[in-house]
């Protein structure tokens, strides 16, 4: 039996602490080595990525080209597809087949077609997310692959359908649209927000531009059963997720694009279904402001909706099943009576049906009120 006589309390406390320390070490050895091993493997994989060779080779030619023979006579970018075939890596089906067209500098072009026609795949080729499987994409007369990739992308303002905000404040999310402008003014930010139509809903947020929509979890709270409401509230406020609708998210993306358009050197504005989550009024306003920002730039819109854009386009490219089946302006394509006319009439009938339905409801409502 252990005799505590003459055993100091401090020694007993030290013994208890030592026993706890040994217990913790044993626990870590038994249960902590597996997560440690997994963490080391993940770290190894991160560093291994630096050794992965980029399959998309960078070019040597600076963009835009400025020399005695190729002076910048236009503020827009010329884009040409020559017999382009494309299939996604790891697949066997061609999503684009023998596509050829030429977009002149400063033109406004709209690419239309039913779902699955190849619109977005075309979009991914001219900003070199992918390279063609066969054929060539040319920019200002040279193969796109011959240019320094960062130079070409710096000359583009791209507005995509999908938009995932960064885990930063909305102020920083918008400012990232113009990376060369390290310290944008409040006036520049507000102007971009208004152009994108995002100013109204941001104004309703408690923290406004300082709101972080989806913050990264950086804390772990363990009070061991004790209550600390102030600390809990502090952590909850820091990591609170702010929900926004699809339309609001697209307005944020548009505001970032307008921020980019406010910078220098942009020669191409391209938008892929940027208004899919907006109502007709919001769509009209956004397209109107984007058209106002042309300023000699080449503009390419991809859309499945007609009306706000196609009537004003210099050229419309009509895709069907991965092929370019028609090209021309709105009047010419309607007169042809082909795929464009078919798509146009389908949408027109839908609007006529809605109008007839609304008129019928109003008539029924009036009849009912007379009977009453």
TrEMBL record:
The keyword Hydrolase applies. Gene3D superfamilies: P-loop containing nucleotide triphosphate hydrolases. GO terms for molecular function: ABC-type oligopeptide transporter activity; ATP binding; ATP hydrolysis activity. Residues 1-21 form the signal peptide. It comes from the Eukaryota. The keyword Amino-acid biosynthesis does not apply. Residues 79-346 form the ABC transporter domain. It comes from Schizopora paradoxa. Keywords: ATP-binding, Hydrolase, Nucleotide-binding, Signal. This is p-loop containing nucleoside triphosphate hydrolase protein.
């Amino acid at each position: 039996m252990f005799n505590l006589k003459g055993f100091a309390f401090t020694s007993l406390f030290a013994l208890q602490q030592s026993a706890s320390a040994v217990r913790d070490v044993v626990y870590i050895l038994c249960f902590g080595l597996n997560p440690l091993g997994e963490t080391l493997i993940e770290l190894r994989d991160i560093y291994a990525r630096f050794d992965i060779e980029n399959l998309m080779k960078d070019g040597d030619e600076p963009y835009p080209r400025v020399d005695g023979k190729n002076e910048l006579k236009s503020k827009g970018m010329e884009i040409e597809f020559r017999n382009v075939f494309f299939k996604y890596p790891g697949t066997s089906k061609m999503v684009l087949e023998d596509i050829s067209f030429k977009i002149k500098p400063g033109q406004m072009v709209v690419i239309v077609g039913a779902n699955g026609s190849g619109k977005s795949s075309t979009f991914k080729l001219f900003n070199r997310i992918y390279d063609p499987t066969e054929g060539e994409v040319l920019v200002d007369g040279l193969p796109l692959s011959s240019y320094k990739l960062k130079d070409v992308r710096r000359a583009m303002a791209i507005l995509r359908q999908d938009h995932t905000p960064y885990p930063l404040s909305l102020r920083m999310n918008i400012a990232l649209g113009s990376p060369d402008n390290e310290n944008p003014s409040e006036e520049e930010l507000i102007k971009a927000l208004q152009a994108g139509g995002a100013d109204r809903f941001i104004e309703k947020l408690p923290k406004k531009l300082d709101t972080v929509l989806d913050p990264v979890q950086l804390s772990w709270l363990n009070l061991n059963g004790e209550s600390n409401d102030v600390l809990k509230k502090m952590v909850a406020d820091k990591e609170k997720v702010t929900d926004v609708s699809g339309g609001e998210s697209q307005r944020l993306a548009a505001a970032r694009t307008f921020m980019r358009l406010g910078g220098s050197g942009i020669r191409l504005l391209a938008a892929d279904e940027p208004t899919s989550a907006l109502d007709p009024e919001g769509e009209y306003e956004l397209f109107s402001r984007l058209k106002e920002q042309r300023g000699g730039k080449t503009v390419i819109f991809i859309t499945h909706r007609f009306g706000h854009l196609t009537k004003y386009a210099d050229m419309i490219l009509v895709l069907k099943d991965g092929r370019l089946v028609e090209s021309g302006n709105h009047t010419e394509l309607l007169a042809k009576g082909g795929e464009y006319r078919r798509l146009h009439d389908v949408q027109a009938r839908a609007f006529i049906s809605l109008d007839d339905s609304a008129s019928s409801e109003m008539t029924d409502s009036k009849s009912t009120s007379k009977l009453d």
